[in-house]
Design a protein that fits this description.
By secondary structure, the protein is of the alpha/beta class. The chain contains 3 helices and 11 strands. β7 and β8 form a beta hairpin.
Length: 191
């Protein structure tokens, strides 16, 4: 049924964490002036969180008037080249990655066969450096990364593929943000 709100107009109901979501790119590994690789900016309280950040999303973030130093967290659903980029441009951010995903890309199989072509080695090296600097957070399974935003390991497309939000009706290659009875879902394309 419909949820009735008793507070002031424009204010969320009690217990609901307000979030602003900006689509910076909707997910394409093919260069295009109209559609960038995955990139989503979620603003909640004092936090500005990027979810994935593929090529072109940086340009869109700047167009939206958001400065790289304002970003507090960068979360990756997985580390394929179309979901990761420009990491060096976020000096104040912590990076969040699923433990299994990072273990795969720093392990014995990353250089084998087609695997070595679906990540940028410098992105992985950058994350290793961030780990030594104390700015890489590992999560395993289901974990609340900030109040109101939970990630879930779903596997499939990548060793440590994450999804976001609730566990029901998850897309294998996507994620879902829920709030006020509405959901935003974005699905990646297999490549």
């Amino acid at each position: 049924g419909a949820r009735h709100h008793q507070g002031r107009p424009g204010e969320p109901p009690e217990g609901v964490i307000p979030m602003r979501i900006r689509l910076l790119g909707t997910g394409t590994p093919t260069p295009s002036l109209k559609r960038m690789s995955s990139g989503y900016l979620v603003e909640t309280g004092e936090r500005k969180i990027l979810f994935d950040f593929g090529p072109g999303a940086y340009h869109r973030m700047l167009e939206a008037g958001v400065k790289p130093v304002e970003i507090t967290d960068v979360f990756f659903t997985h580390l394929h080249y179309d979901h990761v980029g420009n990491l060096e441009k976020f000096p104040a951010a912590d990076f969040v990655v699923q433990d299994d995903e990072m273990a795969f890309w720093t392990g014995r199989y990353a250089s084998k066969g087609h695997f070595r072509h679906i990540v940028e080695v410098e992105d992985i090296v950058h994350l290793v450096r961030e780990n030594f600097a104390g700015r890489l957070r590992f999560v395993a399974g289901t974990h609340e990364i900030v109040p109101g935003i939970t990630v879930h390991r779903v596997g499939g497309h990548a060793a440590g593929l994450h999804s976001l939000g609730g566990t029901d009706e998850l897309l294998e290659l996507g994620w879902r943000l829920r709030g006020l009875g509405r959901a935003l879902a974005a699905a990646a394309t297999e490549h």
